Amino acid sequence: MEDVKRPWEKLISLMKGNQAEQLNEYLKSMKTEDIVLSISRLDKEKQLQLLTLLSPEDAAELLEDIPEYHAADIMEDMEADKAAAIFNELDSDNQADLLTEMEEEEAEAILSQMEPEEAESARRLIKYDPDTAGGMMITEFLSFDEHHTVGHVVRELRENAHEYEGYNLQYIYVTRQGRLEGVLQMRDLLLSTTETHLDKIVHPDVISVKDTATLRELINFVNDYDFYGAPVTNDEGVLVGVVLRRDILDAKSEKANIELLETQGIVGGEELRTMPVLLRSRRRLSWLSVNILLNILAASVIAFHQDVLSSVIALAVFLPIISDMSGCSGNQAVAVSLRELSLGVIRPFEVVRVWLQEFSVGILNGLVLGVLIGLVAFLWKGSLVLSFIVGGALMLNTIVAVSIGGTIPLILRRFGTDPALASGPILTTITDMFGFFLTLTFASLALSQFGGI
Amino acid sequence: MEDVKRPWEKLISLMKGNQAEQLNEYLKSMKTEDIVLSISRLDKEKQLQLLTLLSPEDAAELLEDIPEYHAADIMEDMEADKAAAIFNELDSDNQADLLTEMEEEEAEAILSQMEPEEAESARRLIKYDPDTAGGMMITEFLSFDEHHTVGHVVRELRENAHEYEGYNLQYIYVTRQGRLEGVLQMRDLLLSTTETHLDKIVHPDVISVKDTATLRELINFVNDYDFYGAPVTNDEGVLVGVVLRRDILDAKSEKANIELLETQGIVGGEELRTMPVLLRSRRRLSWLSVNILLNILAASVIAFHQDVLSSVIALAVFLPIISDMSGCSGNQAVAVSLRELSLGVIRPFEVVRVWLQEFSVGILNGLVLGVLIGLVAFLWKGSLVLSFIVGGALMLNTIVAVSIGGTIPLILRRFGTDPALASGPILTTITDMFGFFLTLTFASLALSQFGGI
Description:
Two copies of one chain form a homodimer. Chain A has helices spanning 7-16, 20-29, 32-41, 44-53, 56-65, 68-76, 80-89, 92-101, 104-113, 116-125, 133-136, 150-159, 186-190, 198-201, 215-224, 245-263, 277-303, 306-311, 315-343, 351-381, 384-414, 419-450; strands at 143-145, 171-176, 179-185, 209-210, 229-233, 239-244. Chain A is mainly alpha-helical. The first copy, chain A, has three domains: 7-127, Alpha Horseshoe (MgtE N-terminal fold), CATH 1.25.60.10; 143-252, CBS-domain (Roll), CATH 3.10.580.10; 277-450, Tetracycline Repressor, domain 2 (Orthogonal Bundle). In chain A, the strands form two sheets. In chain A, strands 1-2-3 form a three-stranded mixed beta sheet. The first copy, chain A, has a three-stranded mixed beta sheet with strand order 4-5-6. Chain A is elongated. The model of chain A has no long low-confidence stretch (mean pLDDT 91). At the A-B interface, helix 3, helix 15, helix 16, helix 17 and helix 18 of A face helix 3, helix 15, helix 16, helix 17 and helix 18 of B.
């Protein structure tokens, strides 16, 4: 395949000629990465044209390759009947994910035009929180009531081979009045006579997860067991779906990415530059505007000490350094705590333990940074007093910063708040206030004790 | 299973009684998460005692559950012959990962005591970069030369069933003088007569990856294809291993976690609080000390304008706010660019495109934040001039910050530098300098033009 820098231009030229077949062929030859890039480069009209030119099956395949936000955004603008035809071909978990991303009205319009069976399963799935087993499971799985015979199952598989094409046939689930009773492997069928009833050969020790199981529990599940996936049951023990290992692992890496966005103040989980500017601006501002208020609060500490500052104007040079460096030291500790929480090597209740461990790093790094900044102050102004004021303030504030940074994610998690989003602003507000307070208090003491610096 | 808050205490009590069997049973009943936590809570001596009490097989299984750094750290302190017995039982990719984490001397001591075959394969694997197909592949796979018959293969599988226990038998690779020729599925064997030569039934259209393929290429591979794994070949086309989808997905989520640590200034990829304090302190300082120098550089802009500052001391209150808020706005843009780079919706060469998109967000958010801070300045001091100085400076600097924040990850990536680690410090240094410069220059202009604020 030719390696083109702007593959979307080729798509556009094929669309111009209405060359549906070549278009489909070219799309099939493209790497997923290039598809993602190309779709994001087409305008809405071209995106709609492309999906309409393809067969519903091919269009569904294309939609599954691109980020959810993009896919939902395009489908919202498609006529409901055409969109429904494509939705019929999507995997059940993708149907639910896209419908959840859409405006309710558009989603309802599509649902009402979908095949009744598909629509019903989609309606069931969108009720679940996307980050639970119910929200991540697929409903394409094989299950038979235990009173059936092996022969019935084999016949059913043979007769509906086309329908089961996309199914993973490694496991066949056995139920009693809908409740999960056990599991069979394909080879169990082959080794049994056709008259055998399923309840005679079923393996009853099947491990299932609840439909309300959280992503965290599912990650633990794939760590603990080696299955390609797990059957999902509801409160009554009824088998409602299968959650695949690969979907859990994908959600896990997605979660780490979202956490990265959140620690940097992107609210709402995801931002792509193809989103409308106003939406992006508003979401970023919702975090920035809280932050600027906290910043003003912190800076008010300086306002209360203007007299000291005007006597020792050199301090104004060091205040932003102390604020910024304490933020850096604290955020390092935040990152390590977030990481350890997700690895499971610390638990939210271990605040004291983590604090003690950060404290020793804080003393070491506080000493080094304090001496460094003190040295710079001395070289610049030749004043040992100034040097002790800023060095001492940075040293103490580094200890405070790593103490807070290490423990605040645990405390927030205990209170059920998202530590990735809130840790940073809380940390920097406290360390800024404390840093300014230390510096200016030390300076005012020095002023009154020694009569000027 | 009882849900204990401190499962490591139960481990210690079982170890005290030398109850190897109960110990093993208890470990098997534990969730991976609790194992990870418990091992990190034991001191070195207890960790060694635990692993020695278990059989090498069980010890190997335990090691595969805990973070690499922990596992390598424990094995370094074990007698080489005991460690080698456990290493013999590890999967080949885990052998290589742990040996790479160890001091060379200790790794060599263990290698020299391992079974020759295992040691040879481990020596081959540790030569690869851990983030390539070679570094992630396993060498436990089935391959046969094409001149063999189906009967030979089936006999071989039956006779060595024990050896192949942990293997994934879904695919059998067919080679000619070591070079990968194609693939067979188990059912191909069942449907052929025992005299058939493999070259008659092999599927030659096998998709393989090079041993030098990067993680990024491997992620694209699993996006493009639906296989459970891919055969890995070297420069000569010789089949050297198999890289599994699950290992690629694990590495992907690991990479997102590492990126989170790096954006917050944790150098070296990983930090756990069980690492020695001095090591943790040193690694954090290596980033902090660069940062403090950049901070001093930025603050020197203030030093050059001390005269302005001493005439309008209120500015000292706003300088840290402008510095901090610009950093926040810029880091939001950094996070979105890192995310879009990893999703593949932007490419490193699209600097201008990204800049234009950030620019419009920058204008909107700059306006809002500028007006906000201007309002605060006016309410506090009643001076419209002060209000315009700080509001204007923050507005312009927000635009600069998002422009740099959005584009710097792309530029760094183009120069082959890690954008997660370096984007933040470069961004804040430039925006600090520019923010201080704007504020103080505006103020000095106002001073000279209007004769005081």
